[in-house]
Amino acid sequence: MKYINADAILPEELLKEIQRHIPGGLVYIPKPKDAHKKWGENSGSRIVVNKRNEQIRRLFAAGVSMDELTGQFFLSIDSIKKIVYSKR
Question: Cα(80)–Cα(59) distance, rounded to whole angstroms?
Fold first, then answer.
């Protein structure tokens, strides 16, 4: 995160009001709630995990055992159960 001098970007009146509350301190200004992204949206990890989970569900529905799926996808039996039995 890059720091920006408030003098350079804020109107003088707003800067004075902030200085009244926090003279010389650091202030973090968060993004608006609607600007936040969910895990994996930037990197594409979410898509990869969703595709993997769909493949696990298809294989399980086709008769592949959970033990075989744990070995094939290097996941615990509990993780496989969560994927297979989760509502989509």
Answer: 11
Tokens of 5: 């001098």
Please count the CA atoms within 13 angstroms of the CA of 73 that sit on its side-chain side.
Answer: 26
Tell me the pTM.
0.61
- Residue 71 dihedral angles phi and psi, to the nearest 5°: -70, -40
* Six token digits for residue 82: 């969560």
Separation CA 86–CA 88 (nearest Å): 6
pLDDT tens sequence across 3-19 = 889 999 999 999 999 99
- Write the Ramachandran bin of 76: left for phi over 0, alpha for psi from -120 to 50, otherwise beta: beta
